[in-house]
């Protein structure tokens, strides 16, 4: 078996990048692969033929890789967290009562 050397690019104050994936997306892809491993074993234990299991996991794995790479390129290192935080900011603050503005002496 040939030794393969993977280069991880990380400069000073830069996030880790591996094969085009940035920061947390490396973990998302790794977690997805572990879930697909458990999916394959569950399908095999249920009694489905192994080719069906490989087909389902292969298609799911391809979709996983495409989705994670698309998110990595679209959002970058911190963009997804910023997009999720922006969704939680209300567009307006409504007050039903003027009691808030009442001055108490």
UniProtKB/TrEMBL annotation:
Pfam families tied to this protein: DUF4133
Residue ranges crossing the lipid bilayer per the database entry: 25-43, 49-69
Domain of life assignment: Bacteria
Keywords from the UniProt entry: Membrane, Transmembrane, Transmembrane helix
InterPro entries attached to this UniProt entry: DUF4133
UniProt entry tagged with the keyword Transmembrane: yes
Listed name of the protein: DUF4133 domain-containing protein
Species this chain originates from: Flavobacterium zhoui
